[in-house]
Design a protein that fits this description.
This protein has 3 helices and 9 strands; from the N terminus they run H-E-E-E-E-H-E-E-H-E-E-E. It is α+β, with helices and mostly antiparallel strands.
């Protein structure tokens, strides 16, 4: 097992992953608590993760009903877990940023909605020696 990273290293690595990764597992639940998880492409804009999905999808409905989201990035031994609030967005700058992924939903024949997943808690760890201190953000504020 490698030595535990410092909190500053974990924050740097987490921001690096948010800026370079393009896919994540996104989990939501409906008003009854029925869970739903999907893989989604995203674009980090410095505030949140921009995603685009059909507006009549289960995920979009769950975003609209309560907006609570849990996002998983990375692999089993290098994971970032993000708790976030989903907010509907409809500005050209966000849509243009998302299109930089190489796919522009505006070119599709069916409608797509855009959401920003704004983190309020971020945790990151690799191995058991990083479980202590894994919370890097709480209540939307970086702890370091």
């Amino acid at each position: 097992m490698e030595p535990a990273r410092s909190p500053q290293e974990r924050k740097r690595d987490t921001l690096g992953r948010l800026e370079s990764d393009v896919d994540a597992w996104v989990a939501t639940a409906d008003s009854r608590g029925d869970a739903h998880m999907v893989p989604l492409s995203f674009r980090w804009d410095g505030v949140g993760m921009i995603v685009s999905i059909p507006p009549n999808s289960v995920t979009a409905r769950n975003f609209d009903q309560g907006g609570r989201v849990r996002v998983g990035l990375g692999e089993l031994r290098d994971v970032v877990v993000i708790d976030a609030a989903a907010e509907s967005i409809d500005d050209d700058a966000s849509k243009d940023a998302f299109a930089q992924l190489g796919w522009d939903p505006r070119d599709e024949t069916k409608d797509y909605a855009y959401f920003r997943l704004v983190p309020d808690r971020i945790q990151a760890w690799r191995e058991s020696n990083e479980l202590s201190g894994r919370t890097l953000m709480r209540d939307g504020v970086w702890l370091l």
